[in-house]
Amino acid sequence: MERRIKIFDTSLRDGEQAPGCSMNLHSKVAVAEILQELGVDVIEAGFPVCSAGDFRAVQTIAHCVNGPVVAALARASTRDIDAAVEALLPARAPRVHVFLATSPIHMKYKLRKSPEDVLSQAVEMVSYARSLCPDIEFSLEDASRSDLDFIYRVIESVIDAGASTVNIPDTVGYAVPEEYAALVRNIKNSVPNIDKACLSVHCHNDLGMAVANSLAAAAAGADQVECSVNGIGERAGNTALEEFVMNLHVRRDYYKMKTGIDISKIYQASKIVSKASGVRCQPNKAVVGENAFAHEAGIHQHGVMSNPCTYEIMTPQSIGIPDSTLNKMVLGKHSGRHAFEERLSYLGINYEDSPEILDHLFEEFKKLADKKKTVSDRDIEALVAGRNGEIPQAYVLDRFVINSGSSITSTSVVRLKVADGSFVEKVAIGDGPIDASLNAVDKIIGGEEIKLEDFSLQVVDAVDTGTDAQGECLMRVTRGGRTWNGSGVSTDIVESGIKAYLSAINAMVYELACEREAEKIREAEKNG
Ligand code: KIV
Ligand code: ZN
């Protein structure tokens, strides 16, 4: 009999907390939606006390999600717990996740508290949280570097106080698989009431051991594994969901454990999280990296063609990567709407109920097909990914002209269509054609305070290296300490840069407008 392991996803909390991974509200909702489709058991939506943005994100996700438990993080204080409880009010299945450090180094230097004080604070705050919410998780931060007897006492006491899940994080990625597994076994054997709670593990990847430690802990009896899509998270990240899940799936003969994850959604989830966080996976990343299924060596290619099992332990199709070889029909400028829609549905992209989105995508496809001889599946996926969802387009690129070279200062003339339908055109100079173009955009939108934090450009289809290949640009901008990500796709790299910049700006304009609107409603309610 296979044991079922619960998957607690923290892409939106530990993942989003990582430097350079912050996501805007719309992207967070898109991530929550794919996590729900993926079938995770718990979505940790954020840390509400941290900022108004985090609070609103948890509240919005709590409202949208139907199925998985929605968790919100709180330090062991009434202020944090109150914020978490309030943000979770719309949730059908809310969980407050309280944490407090238990290692000697954290208690002495960070908390400046004795172990006895930490124990009573943990108990007091778990009972307080339990009086407000039926589902409480307690995390013993830095558990893997804590004293064993102290851990047993804390776990027993917080379960008595009402915690239904107890998590023993390897907060600094210090554990060794055998040692971490022993910790799980010791807790199972030594804490008298452990059968009344779900035992969870949460690993960091500082030494590249997060997945190995999580697998060892699950095999030793842990009931829940905390992870994130693409492994995003503090420092070197968390346990990568796709790697943990595919290990259990591919080696079910060995592990005899299963999860509720629909593995055919893994590829899509990875793409959505990359786009939302603005962080691409390294090409050789296990399971979802660009090269994870690429066979370069002739001897491997020959083997895979004769029988994929020679060098492939899982198929790309099993995680949702469409098999282009199954669909030989080439799409190009003569392809009609019917062929395009068929290819979309073959790629698992379903907009049947949204004709206006289909119209828009078909228009973009036609423009692309005019520039490229053939349009690949990756091109189509990039078009869909480059669509900026429900975010209204305050600024749309109409046209641009650049003048650039090695011995002249680059200039760019950019014309944008603005929200009222009019066109505004500006010229600017810059350090290269993209810089000049973004400066021209800044002049139009008054974007002097906007800073470009990160910029990356990639060819969409690794096999399509011809001159008409598409470039996909991811960009991160900040203003007033807040971050927005954008993406843009085009056969022209300057155009993909301008589009990515505008997509981040449009996300920013929309989010700030929503916040102003919400503020107005709150004010009106206050004033009766
Ligand atoms: O790594 C950690 O200890 C955490 C806790 C808050 C669960 O992220
Ligand atoms: Zn963590």
What does this protein structure show overall?
The chain is α/β, with parallel strands linked by helices. 43% of the residues lie in helices and 20% in strands. It has 18 helices and 16 strands. The chain has helices at residues 11-17, 25-38, 52-64, 78-87, 104-111, 115-132, 148-161, 177-190, 210-219, 241-250, 252-255, 266-277, 298-306, 337-346, 355-371, 377-386, 433-445, 493-526, and strands at 3-4, 6-9, 42-46, 69-75, 94-101, 136-141, 165-167, 198-202, 224-227, 257-258, 395-405, 408-418, 423-430, 451-459, 471-479, 482-490. The strands form 4 sheets. It has an 8-stranded parallel beta barrel, surrounded by 8 helices. Helix 2 packs antiparallel against helix 12 and helix 8 runs parallel beside helix 9 (210-219). It is globular and about 70 Å long. The mean pLDDT is 91. It binds 3-methyl-2-oxobutanoic acid and zinc ion. Residues 14, 169, 171, 202, 204, 234 line the site of zinc ion.
Concise overview:
With 528 residues, the protein is α/β, with parallel strands linked by helices. The chain has helices spanning 11-17, 25-38, 52-64, 78-87, 104-111, 115-132, 148-161, 177-190, 210-219, 241-250, 252-255, 266-277, 298-306, 337-346, 355-371, 377-386, 433-445, 493-526, and strands at 3-4, 6-9, 42-46, 69-75, 94-101, 136-141, 165-167, 198-202, 224-227, 257-258, 395-405, 408-418, 423-430, 451-459, 471-479, 482-490.
What are the key terms here?
8-stranded parallel barrel; 43% helix; alpha/beta; binds 3-methyl-2-oxobutanoic acid; binds zinc ion; 3-stranded antiparallel beta sheet; 528 residues
